[in-house]
Amino acid sequence: MNKDIQQTNTDAQFPHMNSVHNSPADDEIDLRELFSVIWQGKWLIIAITAVFAIGSVIFALSQPNTYKSQALLAPASEEQSAGLSGLASQFGGLASMAGINLGATGGADKTQMAIEVIKSRQFTSDFIQSHNILLDLMAADKWNMATDTLTYDAEIYDALNNKWVRDVRAPFKPEPSMQEAYKEFSKAMSINLAKNTGMVTISVEHVSPSIAKQWVDWLIEDINKVMKERDVAEAIRSSEFLNKQIALTNVADIRSILYKLIEEQAKTIMFAEVRDEYVFKTIDPAFAPEEKAGPKRALICVLGTMLGGMLAMMIVLIRHFVRKD
């Protein structure tokens, strides 16, 4: 009798001890219940998973093939900057006054700048407009291998009447804006710099392999042209400033230094004029790929089926516990 009373008092004082001892059994029961619920709803799970599997297959097959063309580039040598680099240690202050950044003439810096220019909105907008590729970028639907021609999405562009027919809300218009085109082009184009080798890879993915190749060629041509024009314009402005400074000073040593700086600017202009591959040299040119780069249909089907299975199990479990409560 006393033992029973003591046990009762102990249970009253330490109720958590009973809950600790019972928790493994409760967990085992819950786990069994979980598997039992899933087993009872197996047909619903199979049905939902099958629907998702079939849907993912249909979706994967409906996606057009895309092709990736790429080119391997190397930073162009910087012979024209050697003279300026040599003068930098002696006349850096004077060169800075003349608007010449002698410290940023290295190939790596110019390469990085060229990469950022390619990624910029201004360059992309100018590229799209100058080559008139807005239609191929925003409305291309399928590529005909036999004729090497594109067909366009009828819900976006009316090819018979040459008219954009997108149904969009303001501020968007039927004809895509340059901001929309920039976003779409950024998805299609990629540029990567290998830090260990300094090599640059430019690639474009499109439903037409020939268009992908053409765009890569145009990108290389345009970035070389843009960077050349920038450096030439800067050299001309620097030369004009230096000539003005020569006219304002009578000190022979300073005039000699200014003439050397003008000579280096003339070299920059000369190198720019005689070199088409100004900032990038093509090591491996772009080509029209024969094999598709996407879509990865098998992966789409697997992920779609897995998503359907997990969603189906969640529905079965939620429905069971809602009814239980």
From TrEMBL:
<feature type="transmembrane region" description="Helical">
    <location>
        <begin position="43"/>
        <end position="61"/>
    </location>
</feature>
<keyword id="KW-1003">Cell membrane</keyword>
<keyword id="KW-1133">Transmembrane helix</keyword>
<feature type="region of interest" description="Disordered">
    <location>
        <begin position="1"/>
        <end position="20"/>
    </location>
</feature>
<feature type="domain" description="Polysaccharide chain length determinant N-terminal">
    <location>
        <begin position="27"/>
        <end position="130"/>
    </location>
</feature>
<keyword id="KW-0472">Membrane</keyword>
<dbReference type="InterPro" id="IPR050445">
    <property type="entry name" value="Bact_polysacc_biosynth/exp"/>
</dbReference>
<dbReference type="InterPro" id="IPR032807">
    <property type="entry name" value="GNVR"/>
</dbReference>
<dbReference type="Pfam" id="PF13807">
    <property type="entry name" value="GNVR"/>
</dbReference>
<keyword id="KW-0812">Transmembrane</keyword>
<dbReference type="InterPro" id="IPR003856">
    <property type="entry name" value="LPS_length_determ_N"/>
</dbReference>
<feature type="transmembrane region" description="Helical">
    <location>
        <begin position="298"/>
        <end position="322"/>
    </location>
</feature>
<dbReference type="Pfam" id="PF02706">
    <property type="entry name" value="Wzz"/>
</dbReference>
<dbReference type="GO" id="GO:0005886">
    <property type="term" value="C:plasma membrane"/>
</dbReference>
<feature type="domain" description="Tyrosine-protein kinase G-rich">
    <location>
        <begin position="281"/>
        <end position="320"/>
    </location>
</feature>
<feature type="compositionally biased region" description="Polar residues">
    <location>
        <begin position="1"/>
        <end position="12"/>
    </location>
</feature>
<protein>
    <submittedName>
        <fullName>Wzz/FepE/Etk N-terminal domain-containing protein</fullName>
    </submittedName>
</protein>
<dbReference type="GO" id="GO:0004713">
    <property type="term" value="F:protein tyrosine kinase activity"/>
</dbReference>
